[in-house]
Amino acid sequence: DTAVSQTPKYLVTQMGNDKSIKCEQNLGHDTMYWYKQDSKKFLKIMFSYNNKELIINETVPNRFSPKSPDKAHLNLHINSLELGDSAVYFCASSQVEGATEAFFGQGTRLTVV
Amino acid sequence: GENVGLHLPTLSVQEGDNSIINCAYSNSASDYFIWYKQESGKGPQFIIDIRSNMDKRQGQRVTVLLNKTVKHLSLQIAATQPGDSAVYFCAESGNNAGNMLTFGGGTRLMVKP
């Protein structure tokens, strides 16, 4: 019974393409997140979103945009993909914002060629 | 990382020994700290957390110690087992927009049988 699920698990695409990664959580949490993990395993927050507010890490290019059709979903859209976008992207959710445990999905390995 | 400093070193221990993984943070306003374990090909999994009003918290085979004076956090794993082999991350939150978790760089724990 997966709590936070992401699709696809692997994504290989060419530079310049537009792609989306889907995320769903069945925990009833109010807040969802997207993290990027680079080749050195460093995890960096990209977005935090609840039904009231989207908080964007200022270092994230505007080619990245989260879309939330409802409380249980937070999809990540990426336009004009670049080589440097290659990484593992993790979706996560928490019951409330911030100072509480976040539950992570299994990750989506994006490779841009 | 921005507030939590830990570059990916490797800790190698013998099965059955105790492991100690350390983490330094710089944001004195941080009030929540958490340790995650990430196995290969998986998302980070919660291990244990601690709030700033405590200096020690114990779980099953794990203990987290918080020293606010020197802004230091540690994870102790008792009787380390091969299944403990993974990358371990500390993270903190507090006093940032959305109180999002900020992760350190991770430590790879290798358990020798």
Q: Can you describe this structure?
A:
The complex is a heterodimer of chains A (113) and B (113). The mean pLDDT of chain A is 92. In chain A, strands 2, 4, 5, 6, 9, 10 and 11 form a 7-stranded mixed beta sheet that branches. A 4-stranded antiparallel beta sheet of chain A has the order 1-3-8-7, with no helix packed on it. Chain A has strands at residues 4-7, 10-13, 19-25, 31-37, 43-49, 54-56, 64-67, 75-78, 87-94, 103-104, 108-112. By secondary structure, chain A is mostly beta strands. Chain B is 0% helix and 52% strand. The mean pLDDT of chain B is 90. The chains are: A mainly beta (113), B mainly beta (113). Chains A and B meet through strand 4, strand 5 and strand 10 of A and strand 4, strand 5, strand 9 and strand 10 of B.
Question: Would you spell out the secondary-structure blueprint of this structure?
Answer:
The complex is a heterodimer of chains A (113) and B (113).
Chain A: E1 4-7, E2 10-13, E3 19-25, E4 31-37, E5 43-49, E6 54-56, E7 64-67, E8 75-78, E9 87-94, E10 103-104, E11 108-112
Parallel strand pairs in A: 2-11
Antiparallel strand pairs in A: 1-3, 3-8, 4-5, 4-9, 5-6, 7-8, 9-10, 9-11
Chain B: E1 4-5, E2 10-14, E3 19-25, E4 32-38, E5 45-51, E6 56-58, E7 62-67, E8 72-77, E9 86-93, E10 102-103, E11 107-112
Parallel strand pairs in B: 2-11
Antiparallel strand pairs in B: 1-3, 3-8, 4-5, 4-9, 6-7, 7-8, 9-10, 9-11
